[in-house]
Design goal:
3 strands, three-stranded antiparallel beta sheet, Alpha-Beta Plaits, about 130 residues
Length: about 130
């Protein structure tokens, strides 16, 4: 299982439209949404709204057996729901997702990886 968190600023004045978009996914578009996510192998999706003095940001968490493949399909599919979904995100975020396809190509393996910090809660009380 792999996952990714995507964050996009929501365009000024579009927060209520973003809320309506989320409602559509759980209401009028639910069957198409579920069909899309099953087809893409997405097992979990979470959409959160974060607002502060600088504006609003949407954070979407996706989990899938192959998240790069799932995103690639979302970015390029010509199926009606996927086209509708991309169009709505473009209206809300001002980005064209098909321009992100280049970032989905697997990166070459590098053995030059360095773990700098890791922490895990243990059952004993740590000081």
């Amino acid at each position: 299982m792999s996952g990714i968190v995507l964050t996009f600023p929501i365009l000024a004045g579009k927060v209520e439209a973003w809320r309506r978009f989320c409602q559509e996914l759980s209401d009028s578009q639910l069957q198409m949404y579920l069909s899309s996510r099953r087809r893409l192998g997405i097992t979990h999706e979470r959409m959160e709204l974060m607002e502060n003095a600088y504006g609003a940001t949407a954070a979407t968490t996706l989990e899938a057996s192959d998240v790069a493949q799932a995103l690639g399909q979302i970015f390029t599919s010509n199926l009606p729901f996927d086209v509708w979904y991309r169009k709505r995100l473009q209206e809300l975020y001002g980005v064209e997702l098909d321009n992100y396809e280049q970032f989905l190509k697997p990166l070459p393996f590098s053995s030059n990886q360095e773990l700098l910090f890791e922490w895990t809660l243990t059952s004993s009380v740590d000081g």
